[in-house]
Every structure is written in C-alpha cells, then in structure tokens.
Amino acid sequence: MLKHLLKNVAGGPVTIQGPAASTEAVEELAARLQKLTHTRLGKGLVFREIDAGSCNGCELEIHALNNIVYDLERFGFRFAASPRHADVMMVTGPVAKNMKEALFRTWDAAPNPKWVVAVGDCACGTGVFAGSYACVGKVADVVPVDLHIKGCPPRPIDLLAGLIALIESTVAPAEKKAS
What we know:
single chain
C-alpha cells in the first residue's frame, strides 16, 4: 500500500492536455464584441451569472472569462452582483424547484433591455438532470431565453462567440426609432 501511495505522490497528477486557447482568436472575438456593444448599446455589457441548480461546471467556464487569457474587463465588460445593474443574465443548470421563484424575481428585477442566455446543456434542456424530482425544467420554462449556448460545459471561446451572436441579433433602441 505504501509503495502505491509513494508512487502516486511522486508521480504527480495524471491529466490530459486541454485545448490551447488561440490568443489571436480570443483577441479578435473580444475586440469584435467590444465594438458591437459600444456601437449598439453605447457601453460595455454587464453580466449577472445565475446558478439555477447546476453542477458548477458551466460556472467555472463563465468565470474563466475573467482570467488572464480572456480578461473581459479590459474591454469594458464586467460581472455584477445585482441584477439591477445587469444587461445579460447568464443562467446555468436546470431550474431546481427551490430556484424557480428566485430566477423569475431576478429576471423581473433586471432593467430593460435585458437578455437571458441559457449556458450549458442542462440550462438548454435539463441535460443529465432530466426527470429529476427536484427539477422544474429548462430555463426557458421559467423565463424567456434569448440565446442557448450548448456544451457540457461550453468553452469560454464558445461563450464569447455566443455573446457576439446575441449582440448581432439585437437591434439597439436608436436603430428601432430610425426604422
């Protein structure tokens, strides 16, 4: 037993190498997102992340958007603790029974215009939690969803691409008046 323990301690962790983030792709996506938001909204996006009952895999990827590789704050984007300051609500996980009312109240408290992004397979369609007694259903069953980003969990670069698609599909209030 001691022999196996020493072998494992001395050998270090055994992991597979993850995909390398392309610095150029990240820079391009983030710069494009910044240009779109400042053109259409006049400011950077403010995100509110809501865990409606997930396993926390998607939260790790969402919070990776703030790490030194992606560093969204350099482009004027930030996460807010209050839904009253948020433009985009990023909801993860299937909606648990005890989170249904809280999710709806959070959505109701956010100012207009607001967007809801269902992040991950569980938020888009309950994923591995399908049929659970504690699960109400997918996020779209509780609040209107503007964008579904699938994956278990989706990579940060997929989240950036999804946010670009969201901004490109929306029309700013000034653009609506001109029409």
